[in-house]
Amino acid sequence: MGRALLLLYALIFVFSSSGCAPQEAEGSEMDYDQTKKMVVDILKTDDGKAALKQVLKDDEVKKEIVIDEKLIKETIQDTLSSEKGSKFWTEAFKDPKFAKTLATSLQDEHEEIIKKLMKDPEYQQMLMDVLKNPEMEKEVTKLLKSKEYRKHLQTVITETFESPTYKGKVQEMIDKAVKEAEAEEKKEE
């Protein structure tokens, strides 16, 4: 649709500019192939490119160009499913900047999808099946026994014990236990 509209503007431009040109000696009109060749030649020149850029920058022209949603959807699907598209995305995801930008822009959507999946019984069952897999159990156990994980766990526990909120809760639990112990001692006497 966009190419056709672009070609239409180019043809209008050519015909309007060639309308004032002198007629050939024999008075015959140019045929389609000659006109097409002339238009293509004009579009390849710097002046032709500049004229097209100027036309496309015009707000009125932008309003006239209507992008067909179905066409865009089909184009994206074809691009993603083609071999060339697959190679492009594989290469694009190797670039850390691209991957980070894409991940950041889609983070909210991913979180929403994960939240919905966690409520889905079928997904929960699939997740449980994966976790019950003996090879998965071995890997998780290996991870939990690793030196790095233990260091991380130690750091988390230390930070938790140093937290004022946690210290307050522990103090409350100790006070409650002392009171209960004192109450039991009084009952026994």
How would you explain this protein's 3D organization?
- The protein has 189 residues and is mainly α.
- The protein has three domains: 2-18 and 31-66, no CATH class; 71-145, no CATH class; 147-188.
- The chain has eleven helices and no strands.
- It has helices at 2-18, 32-44, 46-57, 59-64, 69-81, 83-94, 96-119, 121-132, 134-145, 147-162, 164-188.
- Helix 5 (69-81) crosses helix 6.
- The protein is elongated and about 125 Å long.
- The N and C termini lie far apart (96 Å).
- Mean pLDDT is 80; it is low at 20-27.
Explain briefly what this protein structure is.
Mean pLDDT is 80; it is low at 20-27. The chain has helices spanning 2-18, 32-44, 46-57, 59-64, 69-81, 83-94, 96-119, 121-132, 134-145, 147-162, 164-188. The protein is mainly α.
- Total strand segments: 0
**Count of helix runs:** 11
Q: What number of domains?
A: 3
Q: Calculate the mean pLDDT score and round it.
A: 80
Radius of gyration: 36 Å
Low-confidence stretches: 20-27
The secondary structure category is mainly alpha
What string gives the helices and strands in order?
HHHHHHHHHHH
> Strand percentage, roughly?
under 5%
Query: Alpha-carbon distance between the termini?
Result: 96 Å
What is the share of helical residues?
A: over 70%
- Outline the biggest β-sheet: none
Signal peptide: 1-21
Organism: Priestia endophytica DSM 13796
InterPro entries: GerD_central
Domain Spore germination GerD central core: 65-178
